[in-house]
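User: Show me a protein chain along with its predicted structure.
Assistant: Here is one chain, sequence first, then structure tokens.
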Amino acid sequence: MELLLAIKQGVLFSPMHGWKDRLSEQDMLDVLGYIRSLAPFNPIT
């Protein structure tokens, strides 16, 4: 959820700008899926 928010709104004081006015909701979900495929979440148990 935090990654999607960063894609939508950008990250303050960084070169990451928000994309909510340029990408559709589905496009942003696709970007999120791509990011997750590159770095899958594997919690330490």
